[in-house]
Amino acid sequence: MTAIETRPQNMPLAQPGDFSREQIDLIKNTVAVGCTDLELALFLEVCKSTGLSPFAKQVYAIKRKSGREDKMTIQTGIDGYRLIASRTGTHLGTSDPEFGPLNAEGYPEWARVVARRLVQGHIAEFPATARWSEYVQTKNEWKNGQATGNKTVSDMWAKMPYTMLGKCCEGLALRKAFPAELSGIYTDTEMAQADNPAPAPQQAQPRTVDVTRQIVQATNPNAALEAWVVKIGEAGTKINGLGGRERAVAALAHFPDWRKDVEQARSAFDALREVGRQIKEEQAAAQDTPPFDVAPVEELLLSEGQRKALCAHASRAGAKTSEDRAALWGYSLNSVKPEGTKTLTAEQAHVLLDTFSGLDNSEAEQMLAEARRAFKSAAEAQS
User: Fold this and answer.
1) Is residue 187 part of a domain?
2) Of 284, 299, 314, which one is at a domain's C-terminal end?
3) Is the pTM of this model over 0.90?
């Protein structure tokens, strides 16, 4: 019988019965320390659904500081992942990890693993790649009893770099192959980086460049130019309606490449704004009418569709408050301050949607945690 002909065996997960009061107290004081009653209830349900035993320490709950809140993460070892996958009867094995070249510190840059699962009678492969820079666990370097601010690789990762990175990669591959069975559970190896020391706070430097524009050009070189062309068209239409077409054409003649160059497009828009102001003053003086002004850049805010899409990404990341969402947008845009959803421009929303569409839920959650830390550090540095 070939692997293609193999049919999954009826091997349901081992379902423990209801926990007694004594067992619940034991769990709360050993493998789920610090959990609230609601978190504990969730943890016990995960234990039942996965068939992992908290008493054998196959699964446990870890509380970590995330901004102002403590967040629970349900973790297991790589053997727990293997056990859950094996019990489905459709796991057809996982390849040995392949490793990339060594980085400057002498550690493998990446590891790659392929998990195989029987899906409707066919063998499906689920490759995954884990990068050293994203998963390595670090610790503070100390001198004379004080942290120097430098980070070094933790002892276990320094001693067994291939084993540790290989476990992270295998966990990624198994979670891709068995999303329903492993959703919401992470291996202890891939979560090791969550305990890395936070970087030393740095004094925020005043910005002298348009960072948002740089990000837009880096992710989509034509996006910024297209946006300016649209704005110039809108301004020109308004000026034309007021009889100022020739003046608008004359202003644009100073910027012959405004359709090709972002800087010229920006300058051309400013020139049209000046033409609009002049027409405004002339008509106000002649007719005593309310002044006219070309819509400023700031008024071209994000669309309702962009706002809804951003809120969906914020929910995936665990951002439940407007403060969390503002921190997430500000950090993702490399801004020196949080950015409220309602004040985002269409360009900024485009950059954010492009960024978050490439992140899975765990990566989005990690982005939020980094955003909270970054703005907390900045606030502490200014106080």
Assistant:
1) yes
2) 299
3) no
Which pLDDT score is estimated for 287?
Answer: 59
What domain range includes position 335?
A: 301-382
* 171 and 269 share one domain: no
Of 195, 213, 238, the last residue of a domain is: 195
**Is the Cβ–Cβ distance between 165 and 132 less than 8 Å?**
yes
Same domain, 143 and 34: yes
One domain, residues 46 and 190 = yes
One domain, residues 161 and 274? no
Nearest alpha carbon to residue 50 among 87, 101, 89, 19: 87
Tell me: do 127 and 38 sit in the same domain: yes
Collect contacts of 2-7 with beta carbons under 8 A, ≥24 apart: 3/92, 3/118, 3/123, 4/121, 4/122, 4/123, 5/121, 6/92, 6/118, 7/118, 7/121
pLDDT for 114 equals 95
Residue 80 lies in a domain: yes
Q: Are 173 and 94 in contact (CB under 8 A)?
A: yes
Classify residue 13: in a domain, yes or no: no
In the chain, how many domains are there? 3
- Kindly state the tokens that stand for 274: 């000046």
| Confidence check: pLDDT of 297 > 50 | no
Cβ–Cβ < 8 Å for 72, 184? no
Residue 206 lies in a domain: no
> How does pLDDT run across 159-212, given as a tens digit for each residue?
889 998 998 899 889 989 998 888 767 776 666 565 555 555 555 454 444 444
CA–CA gap between residue 254 and residue 46 (Å, rounded) = 67
